[in-house]
Amino acid sequence: MVNTLIIVFVLSLVIGVPVALAIGVSSLVALVLIGDVPLVVLPQTIFSGMNSFSMMTIPLFIMAADLMSGGKLTQILIRFAGDLVGHIRGGLGYGSIIVGLMFAGMSGSALADAAGPGSIFTRMMRKSGYDPYYAGALNAGVSVLGPIIPPSILMIIYALTDGKTSISGLFMAGIVPGILLALSLVILNFIVSKKHNYRAHAQRASFQTIMKSFIRSLPAIFMPVIIIVGIRAGLVTPTEASAIAVLYALAVGFFVTRGLTARKVFRIIVNSSIVSSALLLIIGMGSAFSWVLTYAQVPQRVAQWMTSLTDNTLLILLMIALICFIAGIFLDTIPSMIILVPVLAPAAYAYGAEPLQVAMIIILTLAIGMLTPPIAPLIFIIAQSNRLKVERLSVAIIPVILAELAVILLLVFVPELSTGLPRLLGLNY
Predict the structure, then answer these.
(1) pLDDT of 356 above 70
(2) pTM over cut 0.85
(3) How many CA atoms are closer than 13 Å to the CA of 351, on its beta-carbon side?
(4) C-alpha dihedral, 146 to 151 to 153 to 155, nearest 10°
(5) Distance of CA 138 to CAs 107, 193, 349, 398, Å?
(6) How high is the mean pLDDT of the chain?
(7) How confident is the model at residue 2 (pLDDT cuts 50, 70, 90)?
(8) 130 CB-near residues (< 8 Å, 6+ apart)
């Protein structure tokens, strides 16, 4: 039955069936083959997978990110980064990383980061004499920060899928790995810029100019701070924080940057609703898929298989990272997470792995999967928006992938990188 589930799912994807329907059809076929389970289980699990108060965070955070982008905050952040580091060698590369960190705290989405500041910085670096494929590869890698720095759509989905971790705990756990990911790209940019002598694109800005740019960028910087402080202080739940983020984005867009209009807000609401609906449909179908896997005792079988190879926790975590990396090559991130988390996470828990450590390894590895062809949405977005050849960009992305995989190894061998900050703040899960 499990073999049929996987085969139908893969074949559906191959013939071009949308991911959500592929998950749902394969779940339906599996339930029919089981025979003794009423088919009403399918719509019930699909509905229950979406019928959650916490699930409201997804459309609200997506809308907040779109409103912040529509409010011209992207341009403000880029100007601040240029004033701060534009005068040093490789400055535009460092600037893209700085903006990536700040924009990730608004968007929570790698795709939004690639389509927004990632594409803009790629064009800027290209005009300033950088190799266009290095520029594209670096900015695609920077976009991976989106799901790691809180708030994160992937972390919300993980928490809802796993049940052992909380959204607030995952948000706190993502801060240190996100900073490490940015540092790995800083090191890479330093090496490449020194090798190719990528010169500065601007004169050193005065202290007053930097401070003015910093003050203009404060509305963008404050958004993740408000979310994190509000959740940590117990003032709001993650769902309430997402609603506050929408109100904050509207206030900033209308009264601070004045980049929003009623017509633009209407378009943003429509677009974010379409994106949210697609995500929620995948999540609902994934809930049915996970139910079938659990009914067939797949998590227990995977745990037994892993332990037949080793009972070393570190090796099990490395195996999980490898499985997620391979899955990221062939599957999109969210379906991979919905399918793999109920199977892999319990196997790791059974041998003493920390839930937040397991979560960060899975989330970061699957996020890096967005850089690996043939299913590499970040590469396609950067290539399309900058008229680059996908084949050459896929080669140029290899050093970026290796740099980010080094961070995963750090998370495997040093669990405190994922668990230390949440524990310090009293959030063990």
Answers:
(1) yes
(2) no
(3) 21
(4) 100
(5) 19, 12, 35, 10
(6) 85
(7) low
(8) 92, 93, 196, 198
* Cα dist from 251 to 27, 265, 268, 271, 356, whole Å: 44, 12, 15, 20, 34
For residues 415 and 357, is the Cβ–Cβ distance under 8 A?
yes
Under a CB-based contact definition with an 8 Å cutoff, are residues 344 and 326 in contact? no
Give the CA count within 13 Å in the CB-facing half-sphere of 298: 20
pLDDT digits (tens, 9 = 90+) for 189-219: 999 998 988 876 667 888 888 888 888 888 8
The residue among 311 and 323 whose pLDDT is bigger is: 323
To which residue do tokens 């490898």 refer? 322
**pLDDT 10s digits, 264-301:** 999 989 988 888 888 788 888 888 887 887 777 776 67
Q: Count CB atoms within 10 A of the CB of residue 127.
A: 12
Contact between 141 and 117 under an 8 Å Cβ cutoff? The reply is: no
The predicted-structure confidence for 39-52, as pLDDT tens digits, reads as follows: 888 888 888 878 77
Q: How far apart are CA 279 and CA 282, in angstroms?
A: 5
Assess whether pLDDT exceeds 90 at residue 177. yes
SS (H, E, C) the chain: CHHHHHHHHHHHHHCCCCHHHHHHHHHHHHHHHHCCCCCCHHHHHHHHHHCCCHHHHHHHHHHHHHHHHHCCHHHHHHHHHHHHHCCCCCHHHHHHHHHHHHHHHHHCCHHHHHHHHHHHHHHHHHHCCCCHHHHHHHHHHHHCCCCCCCCCHHHHHHHHHHCCCCHHHHHHHCHHHHHHHHHHHHHHHHHHHHHHCCCCCCCCCCHHHHHHHHHHHHHHHHHHHHHHHHHHCCCCCHHHHHHHHHHHHHHHHHHHCCCCCHHHHHHHHHHHHHHHHHHHHHHHHHHHHHHHHHHCCHHHHHHHHHHHHCCCHHHHHHHHHHHHHHHHHHCCHHHHHHHHHHHHHHHHHCCCCCHHHHHHHHHHHHHHHHHCCCCCHHHHHHHHHHCCCHHHHHHHCHHHHHHHHHHHHHHHHCCHHHHHHHHHCCCCC
